[in-house]
């Protein structure tokens, strides 16, 4: 039959009723559902229009009074069923949207947490680097002594009495000793770099010699195969 709406029970009921009235359900079912679905008019007027159409087509002895009241009740049930389906679909969509928003919020929180952790790690690394620098400075004595732009200790200010002069002389000697420590460290670093450079050069040379030897062996083997092949032809 024609389209009947959301509730299939209404369609089944309508087919049975039209058959009982001796009417073709395929034809008149479409009229009924079409008229009842026109919500621009009050439901009572729609029912009256349906009754007029069916009265003109049904046999005269058919009483449509029962059909009228049943149609009103069944249509109300159909509309209520469709409204519930719409509400359920709306609730499901809202739930999906809420779930999506929650997932987005969770991702934002995780990203923010990762950024904070990265920042904390950077601060911790900076603190560790500062501590290591302080340790090195403390070990070589440059943590509290005034230094110039090159990192060399500055001589103490002149002036003061004999005792002060003696203290200044001691500080100057200590500063020069620390400067010697700094030069020694630089020399050790330079020596290590030179040793690494020599080791790398030696390794590269050995690799080159090995490649040349391998290339020579392959060439000799190739020549030997050519010689053997020539002797076989003769």
TrEMBL record:
InterPro entries: CCDC43, PWI_CCDC43. Residues 223-234 have a biased composition (Basic residues). Residues 79-234 are annotated as: Disordered. Residues 79-114, 120-136, 180-197, 211-222 have a biased composition (Basic and acidic residues). Pfam families: PWI_CCDC43. The keyword Nuclease does not apply. Residues 7-76 form the CCDC43 PWI-like domain. Keywords: Coiled coil. Belongs to the CCDC43 family. This is CCDC43 PWI-like domain-containing protein. It comes from Ectocarpus siliculosus (Brown alga). The lineage of its organism: Eukaryota, Sar, Stramenopiles, Ochrophyta, PX clade.
